[in-house]
Design a protein that fits this description.
The protein is α/β, with parallel strands linked by helices. It contains ten helices and eleven strands. Strands 1-11-8-7-5-6 form a six-stranded parallel β-sheet, with helices on both faces. Bound molecules: NADPH dihydro-nicotinamide-adenine-dinucleotide phosphate.
Length: 296
């Protein structure tokens, strides 16, 4: 059986459309324009590409985009001052400090200096705690995107066996919390997990967030399972540069019921969810109803 392809690119376009509709209503009915501020320290090429793309998409959905580019030697004190200014700016509803930061800056300290209500990446310790205790929070964008695609495909996830491979703070752990919140039976696997193939074979839902190209082969996948591939790995094959995920797409697609491709799966959902989080933050800040279907 060939797996159904979960088209993240198309799904992200529908999320952006919903966001744009909500932004238009906020402007028309309340004279409010949501604003997203992105802070980039240094000149990491990958980060520059992400920040440009975020800025472009923010403007495309009708929101205000504020970019703060600081040089690589910026001191912690100066960066904290920028964040503080954004925390106090009523035009700014979402703040994102692009990671990774240069080595001399303490990432935890910086992230935890962001007003949790404006923490659209969902990395502030308060948001981590709120998510962990099932309370309303800002949810990290990549796992939120995965959850949206899973809900769209399955409807209810209740009672399903889910295995998340990877336990990072930005993907694996929040993903597991979200699946638990939707009443899945969740296993988190990592580099010390014993008999990973056997663990994965039990899963109705497999989320791979490992950072190892094509690590999960098809024969680990239960017939009909849904495979969400978070991995983005650049490899060279046949003399060409290629993007591949953490699962071996060809063999997994033969056994899975549904699968996300790389590229065009989880990747496009991440920025779409950042925009969704910004509009959610803006509604909460103004005591207005949150847009439906754009939060966890
Ligand atoms: P991290 O490196 O922070 O975490 C990787 C996790 O994988 C760790 O928990 C690690 O275990 C686990 N792991 C490593 N090797 C193995 C193994 N052999 N068997 C089982 N588990 C293993 O990565 P991230 O979570 O930040 O990212 C994961 C992937 O997702 C990357 O490819 C990244 O590029 C991609 N990504 C994609 C995004 C998107 O927008 N689509 C956004 C963010 C990330 P341990 O903890 O024991 O070391």
């Amino acid at each position: 059986m060939a797996a159904q392809i979960i088209d993240g690119k198309a799904f992200a376009a529908t999320v952006r459309e919903k966001v744009a509709g909500h932004v238009a209503r906020l402007k028309e009915e309340h004279n409010i324009t949501p604003g997203l501020a992105v802070v980039l320290v240094g000149e990491d090429p990958a980060s520059q590409v992400y920040v440009r793309s975020k800025g472009k998409q923010t403007v495309e959905v009708g929101m205000n985009s504020y970019e703060h580019k600081l040089d690589a030697e910026t001191s912690e004190e100066d960066l904290l001052a920028v964040v503080e200014k954004l925390n106090n700016d009523p035009e700014v509803h979402g703040i994102l400090v692009q990671l990774p930061l240069p080595g001399h800056l303490n990432e935890d300290l910086i992230i935890n200096s962001i007003d949790p209500a404006k923490d659209v990446d969902g990395f502030h310790i308060s948001n981590v705690g709120l998510l962990g205790t099932g309370q309303k929070s800002m949810v990290p964008c990549t796992p939120l995107g995965c959850l949206m695609m899973l809900r769209d495909h399955h409807g209810s996830l209740s009672g399903m066996d889910a295995v998340v491979i990877g336990r990072s703070n930005i993907v694996g752990k929040p993903m597991a919390q979200l699946l638990l919140g939707d009443s899945c039976t969740v296993t988190i696997a990592h580099s010390r997990t014993k008999d990973l193939p056997d663990v994965v074979r039990r899963a109705d839902i497999v989320v791979a967030a490992v950072g190892r190209p094509e690590m999960v082969p098809g024969d680990w996948i239960k017939e009909g399972a849904t495979v969400i591939d978070v991995g983005i790995n650049r490899i060279e094959r046949d003399g060409k540069n290629k993007l591949v995920g953490d699962v071996d797409y060809a063999s997994c697609a033969e056994r899975a019921g549904a699968i996300t491709p790389v590229p065009g799966g989880v990747g496009p959902m991440t920025i779409a969810c950042l925009l969704a989080n910004t509009v959610t933050a803006c509604c909460r800040a103004n005591g207005l109803a949150e847009p439906e279907g754009l939060t966890a």
